[in-house]
Automatic annotation (TrEMBL):
It comes from the Bacteria. This is TniQ family protein. It comes from Roseateles violae. Residues 48-155 form the TniQ domain. InterPro entries: TniQ. Pfam families: TniQ.
Length: 293
């Protein structure tokens, strides 16, 4: 049986589940067991894309396709030097990456996905018409986003009856069009922005969402030309760019900016600090401001 077609940017977990639903339950189970659960289990690490291709999909979805179309790797590579990007890509293709979760997100300590799954109703309708099933999308899961970057549609998250949201760890067989697994209600979900509105200024929010989506698609080529040397030639310092970024987002500190992007902040002896010193979305927010200066 051929693997069913899947949309670009469907999460790897979603693709695995669709494969299992098409009758390849053994392979789907192997994929889930071998790759480990998504983000919240830091002791369970992902595995190489070529191995996932072989053992879960019998080679019908290549390792390159998994990396380029069903992971956040292109987003990360967009801000890396060319040589480093090649090295990271080769490592993800052929060797275990001990801080990478292949199923859904990039590094365990870089919060690229919210704990609850989100969906775009327009994507669901289009998927059902084209594929017969609806997939979770990578760019819907970024913690700060409240809209589909493609359709501008408000994302949905919680069941209208029980008000519960699908948790990443508990959806090994759930796809985006399924009825609520908790109460069985038909697949109707409330808009995410009703309960968790956009936290930043509208212009800054949409600009960051657009840049992140273009980077995921490999289209944000202008990022490559952004570095401190280029800034100095224009008489601008990185401190100036960071200051402008905080002003743009109406923040006084990096911790406040992290909060507006829904990035995890941890307590350390009573002081609040970022779980990671420079999460990817914060880097993109600074890059976005610098590119527009």
């Amino acid at each position: 049986m051929d693997h069913p077609q899947v949309p670009r940017f469907a999460t790897t977990l979603s693709v695995v589940n669709a494969w299992g639903r098409a009758g390849h339950f053994g392979n789907a189970r192997v994929a889930n067991e071998r790759a480990g659960f998504p983000r919240h289990f830091d002791h369970q690490f992902g595995w190489a894309a070529d191995q996932l291709s072989k053992f879960a999909f019998a080679g019908r979805i290549s390792g390159d396709a998994l990396m380029d179309q069903h992971s956040h790797l292109p987003l990360q590579l967009s801000i890396m030097a060319a040589n480093d990007a090649v090295e990271m890509r080769n490592g993800m293709r052929s060797a275990d990456m001990h801080k990478y979760h292949q199923l859904n997100q990039f590094f365990a300590w870089d919060p690229l996905e919210a704990p609850n799954l989100r969906r775009c109703p327009t994507c669901v309708e289009e998927d059902l018409a084209r594929y017969g099933v609806a997939h979770w999308r990578l760019h819907h899961q970024w913690p700060f986003t409240r809209h589909c970057a493609e359709h501008r549609t408000p994302l949905q998250q919680a069941c209208v009856r029980c008000k519960k949201s699908p948790f990443v760890e508990k959806v090994a067989i759930q796809l985006a069009h399924d009825d609520c697994l908790l109460c069985g209600h038909h697949a109707h979900f409330t808009p995410l922005i009703d309960e968790s509105p956009v936290k930043g200024p509208a212009e800054a929010y949409w600009s960051l969402l657009d840049l992140a989506f273009r980077a995921l698609k490999g289209e944000a080529l202008e990022i490559r030309s952004f570095d401190e040397a280029a800034l100095r030639r224009r008489g601008i310092t990185m401190d100036h760019v960071v200051s402008k970024t905080l002003t743009r987002w109406n923040c006084r500190s990096g911790v406040e900016l992290a909060a507006k992007l829904d990035i995890v902040v941890q307590e350390d002896n009573g002081a609040r600090k970022l779980k990671n010193a420079s999460p990817l979305m914060m880097k993109l927010a600074v890059l976005n401001c610098g590119l527009e200066m």
